[in-house]
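Re: Re: token formats

Sure, here are both.
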Amino acid sequence: MLFTITGKHIDITEAIKTHAEEKTAKLPKYYNSINQIEVIIDGNPGGGTTSNNIEVEIIARAEHSNVFIATETGEDAYKCIDIAVHKLERQLKRKKTRQRDNKHTAGPEAERESS
């Protein structure tokens, strides 16, 4: 799995990088076909000079052109990463259950019709 982290208007410390990598490493547990995760941390969202908010965007790319995106804005980068990962977990769980539910098995009605 390819992991990239990018900082816009902010320096990415080693601690932030390892925190983001540890949190996003468990995402394939929820959806196995993830092959790339990109974390973008913007230190100056909206271009305002007075705000000290940080925007975190996590993009998870999977097979068959499936793309999952979660964003969070706040004052603490670590909390934003945690919340964005949680949002992605929910998206991935929902996608996985929908895939599983779409697999229909032949029931007793299908057997009667074919006879």
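Second one below.
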Amino acid sequence: MLRSDNPATVAVGALGRREDALSKRGVRRSTSRILTTSIMSIPMEIITSETELAKAGFYWREVDGVRALICAPLEQDGFVNGFSTRLGGVSPMTHNSLNLAGFNEDTAENILENRRRFLKLFPGQWSLAGCWQVHGADVRVVKDAQDARPAENDRGDTIYCDAIVSDADGVLAGVKTADCVPLLMGDARTRSFAAVHAGWRGTLAGVAIQALERLTSEHNVRPGDVRVAIGAAAGACCYEVGSEVIEAFASRFNDADNLFTPTREGHALVDLLKANRNQLIAAGVSAVRIHTAPICTMCRTDLFFSYRREKSLHGKVGRLMAVVGKSQ
């Protein structure tokens, strides 16, 4: 159950005051046996300030040692959601890791067991709708739980895209990341939702906007009603790119100068989280309805997988997963 002093309540309360004109609903109390973790139950070495997370609209959830970040306002709007960590699994990346994809670098048995553990965070029966991500802007529409299943087999996903849209009962739309930006969207009025994977190529192609437009065309969503949660990703503190990316963004976005911090000749740090946020605001999403987790995956490899930090060290890297669906 939610405690009166837990971070979910703090997060929703703080954000609710900012959005009073938009919503007068209170926080729905949990009836599940899932533990909403307090700061005392997480080892100090893995804590990202609980106060900072609460201000951003997030809190930790834990079941049997598996932890995930939950966006409290998206949950309040009626959407199960979560951003996985690397904790509580069975994969040797480097040990006991919750790797949720990458069948070429881990066994199917490990990945499927890790997915089973991860889905225990979300009470109910779920069909996971995934895709083989290609760093593009194609969107998959999932009509029902049966439609979700053909994308998965014992070797991975068989539908190619980078965003999933649905309004189906019993479906969790899921995308995998390991530094790229995961975005989850939900519209309380139509009860439709989307999961988006945005690397620098997907951000350049406007994949988040493509997902938003598909929500509009398929489910009559109004952008101003949409709630967006942006999970942990490589931050502007660490994500260095070269001239190829800098020039591509400069040719595509008028605000590109505000997305880069020069580091050395022909290189700069890029803020992909801001880039996606700016695109969504320009498309009509209210700024106060976009919630960004204040965590960099490259800084926090104790909590998250990071392709840029770990691939060169270990030769392989696990994958995180972000999921969203209608509360049951």
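The CA atoms of residues 41 and 284 lie 39 Å apart. The first helix runs from residue 7 to 18.
- S.
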